[in-house]
Specification:
It is a single chain. By secondary structure, the chain is an alpha+beta fold. It folds into two domains: 230 residues, Rossmann fold, CATH 3.40.50.300; 111 residues, OB fold (Dihydrolipoamide Acetyltransferase, E2P). Helix content is 25%, strand content 36%. The protein has a six-stranded mixed sheet, with helices on both faces. The chain has a five-stranded antiparallel sheet with strand order 2-1-4-5-6, with helices on one face. A hairpin with a 3-residue loop joins strand 17 and strand 18.
């Protein structure tokens, strides 16, 4: 386990600054995710922690040891880190045991110690029965676990993972999220994980750092940044959301497209606002709700039903449980209750922020 301290870090390639000033401490044993769209700077940050890139300015400390900064630069092999890449990078001519043992062999660890440590890590990643197989005899998920085991067998202080699940199919990707989280948690290891997949970030992280254009837009627990986003970009990137123009005054928000008002008792705003509504926070019923609309389209997805409901001039997205598709049909008149929503000052920047997508 280890603490990573990052001070005043920036990175530029030629005249382009890809990562702007970054100051943070990734705590001992913490699972941290760097999340953001392609090209935002998250992989560059990971590569600087690993020692594959040199910061333009600033310092990186692992525990009380300076690894990058000033005239100091430790190469990756001297940083006591493990890294798992997007490509599995397993050697096709070596069996599972030898793939995992390789980092220990180059450190000239004794044969008996190699056998003990490799056997232990293969058991942790559920590959003991495949020790003698070649990688091409295994599934994609099993090959990814080889890469994970190889990174962990040297008992690094920090584990760095660069989009390690992006090459897997959806079902396998979901199961591997929980496996990686369980394994690293059981070992008590500090993890920095890079992804553009918000579901991965939500499922695995203790804290998420959402990056856009080289800047941290917000950091916090999954609950904090999902339910209390700092700006419209954060709200839009993390989860499903619709935005509606409104006008705030006297504890009410008037939604012109809906031809209706929302109660907003905690209101401290007045004037133009942007109201963000997550579709799972709207309840649909046949009667008794605050707003009346008509179902234009509905999509049954098994575990949920995804509706498009016309309210005034607005099309409102509603997500309910899968069973509800038996209760409603296209063309039905329904009522909606908005159980929770988020309000941002509409200063004209919202549209520009939302243009930046993965």
């Amino acid at each position: 386990m280890s603490t990573i301290t990052i001070k005043n870090l920036t990175k530029s390639f030629d005249n382009v600054q890809v990562l702007k000033e970054f100051n943070e401490v990734f705590r001992d044993g913490e699972f941290v995710t760097l999340l953001g769209p392609s090209g935002c700077g998250k992989t560059t940050m990971l590569r600087m922690i690993a020692g594959f890139e040199i910061p333009t300015t600033g310092e990186i400390w692992i525990d009380d040891r300076l690894v990058s900064g000033g005239k100091t630069f430790l190469p990756p092999e001297k940083r006591d880190i493990g890294m798992v890449f997007q490509s599995y990078a397993v050697w096709p001519h070596m069996n599972v045991f030898d793939n995992v043992a390789y980092p220990l062999q180059i450190k000239h660890v004794s044969r008996s110690e190699i056998k003990t440590r490799v056997s232990r890590i293969l058991e942790i990643v559920h590959l003991s029965q495949y020790a003698d197989r070649l990688p091409n005899q295994l599934s994609g998920g099993q090959q990814q676990r080889i890469a994970l085991a190889r990174a962990l067998v040297a008992e690094p202080k920090v584990l760095l993972l660069d989009e390690p699940l992006s090459n897997l199919d959806a079902k396998l990707r979901e199961s591997m999220r929980f496996e990686i989280k369980d394994i690293t948690q059981s070992l008590g290891i500090s993890v920095v994980y890079v992804t553009h997949d918000q579901t991965e970030a939500m499922a695995m992280s203790d804290r998420i750092f959402l990056i856009n254009n080289g800047l941290i837009q917000q950091s916090g627990t999954p609950d904090e940044i999902y339910n209390h986003p700092a700006n419209p970009f954060v709200a839009d990137f993390l989860g499903k959301v619709d935005f509606f123009k409104g006008t705030a005054s006297d504890s009410r928000i008037r939604l012109s497209e809906w031809d209706a008002e929302l109660s907003y008792p905690e209101n401290t705003l007045s004037g133009a606002v942007e109201v963000a509504v997550r579709p799972e926070n709207i309840r649909i019923s046949h009667q008794g709700g605050m707003f009346t609309g008509t179902i234009e389209r509905m999509y049954y997805l098994g575990d949920e039903t995804d509706y498009r409901v016309k309210v005034g001039k607005a099309t409102v997205r509603v997500i309910d449980d899968g069973y509800s598709h038996r209760e409603f049909s296209t063309g039905d008149t329904v009522t909606l209750d908005v159980r929770e929503f988020i309000v941002f000052t509409d200063d004209g920047s919202t549209t520009e922020q939302l243009k930046i997508r993965t």
